[in-house]
């Protein structure tokens, strides 16, 4: 059994999730390749039984590299077990999770995969006021600060909204799916 965890990450949040998924799957006895899509020119999904593709979300979009990977491997992914995950702010709030699921996972799957994915993971984001996120983040930073203050959180501090136990559970379910279908 062999799995590929391929991801695109702008600020490291999706990368950390991908690393944890890969580590957890490997501990369950599955051979895993972890690939930062930005660091390779092309990645072939053909040799894998399970392909997990993830992305961070910025300004409502997947990373270009992750989408390119899905498009470049569309025919080979049609014959694989495929799972998708994202790290995004929509996962941080219960009232925005359904919209995040639809926009960032269901729509991306419909546009870029032949078959439905075996699993999708909508995972939280990290708010870091000291990170260099660029002009778009700077324009919306005031909104984020007010939102954090409403929740009683200090906007001058880093906040990690990822549910690590949920991420590990998701990875375990994928491992079980892979092992049970062998």
- What percentage of amino acids are in beta strands? 15-25%
What is the helix content? Answer: 40-55%
Number of strands: 7
Coarse shape: globular
Gyration radius (Cα, Å) is: 16 Å
The CATH homology group name of the largest domain? Flavodoxin domain
CATH topology of the largest domain: Rossmann fold
Biggest β-sheet: count, sense, barrel? 5 strands, parallel
Query: What is the H/E string?
Result: EHEEHHEHEEHEH
Domain Flavodoxin-like: 3-144
GO molecular function: FMN binding; menaquinone-dependent protoporphyrinogen oxidase activity
InterPro entries: Flavodoxin/NO_synth, Flavodoxin_dom, Flavoprotein-like_sf, Protoporphyrinogen_IX_DH
Pfam family, one: Flavodoxin_5
């Amino acid at each position: 059994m062999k799995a590929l965890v391929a991801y695109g990450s702008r600020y490291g949040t999706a990368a950390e999730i991908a690393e944890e998924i890969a580590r957890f799957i490997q501990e369950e006895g599955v051979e895993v390749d972890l690939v930062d899509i930005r660091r390779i020119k092309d990645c072939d999904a053909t040799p894998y039984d399970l392909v997990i593709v993830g992305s961070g979300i910025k300004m409502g979009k997947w990373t270009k590299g992750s989408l390119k990977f899905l498009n470049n491997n569309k025919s080979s992914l049609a014959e694989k077990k495929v799972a998708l995950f994202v790290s995004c702010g929509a996962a941080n709030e219960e009232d925005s999770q359904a919209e995040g699921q639809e926009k960032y996972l269901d729509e991306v799957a419909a546009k870029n995969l032949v078959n439905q994915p075996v699993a999708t993971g909508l995972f939280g984001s990290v708010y870091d006021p000291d990170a260099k996120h660029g002009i778009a983040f700077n324009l919306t930073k005031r909104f984020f600060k007010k939102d954090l203050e409403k929740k009683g959180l200090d906007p001058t501090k880093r906040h990690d909204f990822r549910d690590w136990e949920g991420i590990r559970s998701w990875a375990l379910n994928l491992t079980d799916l892979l092992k049970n279908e062998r």
